[in-house]
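To the wet lab folks,

You asked to see what we're planning to order before we commit. Fair enough. Below is the target structure as tokens, and below that is the sequence we designed to fit it. If anything looks off to you, flag it before the synthesis order goes out.
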């Protein structure tokens, strides 16, 4: 994957914020999913809760996001970033991508195949994704308000 520019494109920015909003919405609507899944496993046919629709939307848009990332690359760290910090950034973003893909895949498999134990792992993964994204957002705000190095603006104003 190569850096194609020092900013993100309009498409990458739109995908980033759409996925962020969907993930937050999916996390807040996850409550009570265990009970609905148990009903489904017992043979009742419950209506698909909003959480399922949001998770499927996350999966679809994350697939597009990963394809766009693979095709057009992404900017490297802002100038002045130290080596350790650049590594943390790399592994942090990678962990976000892995969780963004794995959590909805696990949730969809648990829902459609009726796997209660997988649903529990999915739920833990969802929490991990939510808190990692929260830490990521705090780092972005730290760049903006403390370092004032333009990192956040790259995810707001397209190249
Ligand atoms: C569920 C929520 C979120 C997820 C899953 C997420 C995920 C990601 C990922 C994977 C990247 C790397 C993009 C790439 O280089 O390919 C990224 C970049 C970025 N995100 Fe987020 N993000 C979330 C929320 C936020 C929030 C709330 C903020 C700001 C408050 C934010 C600010 C940024 C910024 C500024 C970058 C660019 C970082 C840089 O270029 O070094 N993100 N995000």
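Sequence we intend to order:
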């Amino acid at each position: 994957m190569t850096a194609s520019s020092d900013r993100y494109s309009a498409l990458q920015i739109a995908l980033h914020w759409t996925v962020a909003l969907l993930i937050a919405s999916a996390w807040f609507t996850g409550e009570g999913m265990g009970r609905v899944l148990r009903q489904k496993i017992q043979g009742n046919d419950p209506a698909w809760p909003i959480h399922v629709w949001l998770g499927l939307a996350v999966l679809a848009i994350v697939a597009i996001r990963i394809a766009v990332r693979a095709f057009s690359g992404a900017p490297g760290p802002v100038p002045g970033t130290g080596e350790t910090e650049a590594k943390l950034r790399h592994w942090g973003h990678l962990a976000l991508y892995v969780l963004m893909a794995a959590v909805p895949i696990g949730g969809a498999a648990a829902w459609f195949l009726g796997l209660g134990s997988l649903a529990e792992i999915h739920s833990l993964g969802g929490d991990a994704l939510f808190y990692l994204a929260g830490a990521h957002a705090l780092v972005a705000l730290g760049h903006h308000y403390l370092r004032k190095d333009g990192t956040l603006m790259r995810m707001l104003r397209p190249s």
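Structural context that might help your review: The mean pLDDT is 95. Residues 16, 19-20, 23, 69, 74-75, 77, 89, 93, 96-97, 100, 133, 136-137, 140-141, 151-152, 154-155 surround protoporphyrin IX containing FE (CB under 6 Å).

Thanks,
Computational group
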